[in-house]
Amino acid sequence: MEKRPLILISNDDGITAKGIANLVEVMREIGEVVVVAPNKPQSGMGHAITIGQPIRLDKSTIFGEDVLAFECSGTPADCVKLAKYHLFKDRTPDLVVSGINHGSNSSISVIYSGTMSVAIEAAIEGLPSIGFSLCDYGSQADFSHTHEYIRKIVLQVLANKLPKGVALNVNIPKKSDEKIKGIKITRQALGHWGEEFDERTDPHHRKYFWLTGYFVNQDKGEDTDEWALKNNYVSVVPCLYDLTAHFALSGMNEWEL
Amino acid sequence: MEKRPLILISNDDGITAKGIANLVEVMREIGEVVVVAPNKPQSGMGHAITIGQPIRLDKSTIFGEDVLAFECSGTPADCVKLAKYHLFKDRTPDLVVSGINHGSNSSISVIYSGTMSVAIEAAIEGLPSIGFSLCDYGSQADFSHTHEYIRKIVLQVLANKLPKGVALNVNIPKKSDEKIKGIKITRQALGHWGEEFDERTDPHHRKYFWLTGYFVNQDKGEDTDEWALKNNYVSVVPCLYDLTAHFALSGMNEWEL
To answer: Is the CB of residue A180 less than 8 Å away from at least one CB of chain B?
Structure first.
């Protein structure tokens, strides 16, 4: 019998979210699963790590007695670090998966995403990794249609391996009457969040703000994650943690510095 | 008389840090300065934004009566968003600068850095931006030697403009007896933080962990930020927020998806 792959699972919506329960369900068919997930929602945490405070790690039986699971007081990136350097001292996960996020992480949202910080942290640690997101923010969103796509992508990653340092950002359209057309390899669309600060006054007469935003797609390309999702495809963007703008190096070497 | 550039300043060590006071001092010589900085340290916050909580913004006179300054309860990225969408509704900053960070943000630290999240958020918003860091973690670090390099880099950015979507990650060697050799345009060194979790038991007999790490430079190149800093040069890395691993797209299009 072939050895089953060891799969680490985390997320940013917290260990009690419906999305991670769905991911555990799919991954258990494929390999041996270990879960290390935040004990509270951590959306919008970007690639934060916990430096100034201690971190707690407690066993959890939320996925049943036969799934080794831990809830962690830290950020999504902390969960990966704790798994690699504390729990897995003598073993190396074959794959790290994150999600399924309640809400899209396409285009620039990858930068703010706790879900993708799990995948990118894993890539930094040299581990193949995938972040999965469903384009539906509802806490009771229907994840049933995502299983077949997740299975397909995971099996391809295990079979083909990922290029060194690459993490996948997978976004899956919301469940609808229209059937998903397939899976597209895409690039991150150029976009940003226009913000509106909702200004209010508290009972103590002090002002405060709520951050609210609307996504602006600045990219007309038909090879982007935004285009794929809009046209009812699953989008797969390979992501790097080398932020260097290599194309800018030669021009800047002409500066008078 | 030429119009003085409008310069937004933020950081991640908080508005009371010595580093931002030094940055304000240098920038006031160059342009009109507005400060929006966190009201508490936010190191390691990566590109976090505040979604689940309200944000406070209060005027501050910490830099004297003639510098418009605000302290913000949110993250470094929140500060940029508040400045752009709330404070600067009818004006656009000519430059956004962040820091001076107490500690290096070279190599992979760019990903965890609140200092660089200011610069990258500004780039996303289409604003030229630079994050400055001093390779000295001390709260009372000597910043005096950084001024001339900051001035030089800022003036070159204002004169040459930055390519669209590019933010600069500038790291400056710690003050020492050896004179800094100059400024190098570099790329992000391949590296990661090996972590050691310091496991302790609290007075209530519960375990907790402190995250402690050591940087591992995996990159032998002599064109990297790590090489430059080790050889006593100021390092300037142009950074992008498009995480797409463009080189991986064609190979992945052969997958069976």
So the answer is: no
